[in-house]
Fold this sequence. Notes:
Elements (H helix, E strand, L loop, with lengths): L1 H11 L1 H49 L1 E4 L2 E4 L3 H7 L5 E6 L5 E4 L9 H6 L2 E7 L2 E11 L8 E9 L1 H36 L1 H12 L17 H48 L5 H31 L4 E4 H12 L9 E5 L6 E4 L1 H19 L3 E8 L3 E8 L28 H11 L3 E7 L2 E9 L4
Parallel strand pairs: 9-11
Antiparallel strand pairs: 1-2, 3-4, 3-7, 5-6, 6-7, 8-10, 11-12, 12-14, 13-14
Amino acid sequence: MxxxxxxxxxxxxxxxxxxxxxxxxxxxxxxVLSLAAWQxxxxxxxDAYDKLLAGGAVQIAENIYMQGGVVTLDPPAAAFATLSAYxxxxxxxxxxRGVVVAGYDDLTIQAPKSALRExxxxxxxxxxxxxxxIAAVARRLDGAPGEGWSEIVLAxxxxxxxxxxxxxxxKAIGLIAAMSLLALVATALCLRLVFAPLxxxxxxxxxxxxxxxxxxxxxxxxxxxxxxGAIDGFMQRLAERIALxxxxxxxxxxxxxxxxxxxxxxxELLSDQTSDPKALDRLRGRISDLARLTSQLLDHAMIQHxxxxxxxxxTDINALAKSVLSQSVPLSLDREVSVSFVxxxxxxxxxxxxxxxxxxxxxxxxxxxxxxxxxxxxxxxxRAPAHVTIIVWDDGPGIAxxxxxRMLSPFQKSDGSHGSGLGLAIANEVAAAxxxxxxxxxxxxxxxxxxxxxxxxx
Length: 458
C-alpha cells in the first residue's frame, strides 16, 4: 500500500514529473555523449599510435643499406622499444627480388606496390590470431638489383591502443556523469525555488478561515496568474452564492413567519368565535397561502441550483406550454375565466431545461389567475427568427410600468397583493439561465407577461 501510494503521489506531483522528465533527458544525453566520447577516445588513440607505427616503419626503412650487393638491416632499437612497451611487434624486410632478409616471412599487407612507393600505408589485419595494425612502406636502394625497391612491413598488436582508449573514455564518461548529476541536483533546487510561490499560496489558503473567500493576496508568477485568477473568480462566485443563499434564507424565514402568525391568530379567533363561518374560510386561505409560499420557496431554491448547472435538451415548447396550462388551471375558480391556448404553427423545438421552464410557466399562469385575469386567460406560443416567445395574456389590471422591474426581484409584491412575490422572480431567473429575458407588454385589460427563449444558444 505504501509503495502504491508513493507511486500515485509521483504521478500526480508536478515537481516529480518534471524531475523524472529532466532526469530522463539528462540520462539520454549522457548516453549519447558517452558514446561520442568513446568514439573520440578510440580515434585519438588510433591516430596517436598510427603516428608511432608509421614513424617506426620509416626508421626501419632508413636503416636499410646495401652491403656486398646484399640488402642489410640495422634494426632501430629505439623504435622497437617504443612500439613494444605494451604490445607485440612484428616486422618483415624484403629486398627488390622479393627475398625476406629480416623478420617474419608470413607477415604481409594487402596494398598495391605503387601505394607503398608513395608513402606509408596503414591497414588493419590479423596476424597469428591477434588483431594488429600494419604499416608498410617501400624504399629505393641505389645499386640494388632490379627496380631497386625494398619493402618494409611493421605490425603492432592493439593492447596499448585499447588501454589508451579506455583511459580517455573513462575520464570523459566520469566527467559527463558528474555533470549530469550536478545538473539534476541543480534542477531540483531550481524547481524548489520555482514552486516556492505556489507553496506560499497553498499555505495562505490552508491558514484561512472557512468563511474567508477573499482574493489571494500573494502576487503569483506570470505563468500561473491565470490559474490563481480562476481560483479567485471561483471563490468570488462561491462567496456571492453563499451570500445569496443567506439572504434567501433570511427572507424566507421572515416571509414564513407572517402566514404562520396569521394562522395562529385565526385559530385563536376560531376557538373564541365558533359562530363565525368565515373564520374557517380565512383559515383555509392562510393555510393555502402558506402551502403556496413553501412550494415557491422550494421551487426558487431548485431553480437557483439548476441555473448553476443547467441540463439543456431539445424541448417542444408547444407541448410543454399546453401541458403546463392544463395542469395549472384548477378545476374550480371563484369566478368564471375563459382559458385558451394558441400554439405556434412553426417548429418551436429549442434547447432548454424542461423542469425549470415548466416551473417558470406554471408560476406565470398562477400569477395571471390569482392577480390578473378577470374573465379571460390566454397562453400563446410564437416563433421569431432568433427566439421563441411564450405569452401569458389576461384581461386583468396588469402591473404599473414604474414597478415592473422591481417585481422581478424575490418577495416583491404589487399593492394589495397577498402572494409571496416569488412567481415573477422564478420566471425571470429561468429566462436568464436560458440566455433569454422576461418582459411585460400592454396595459390594464390587455396585459401580457412575455418569456423569450433564444433558438440558438451561444
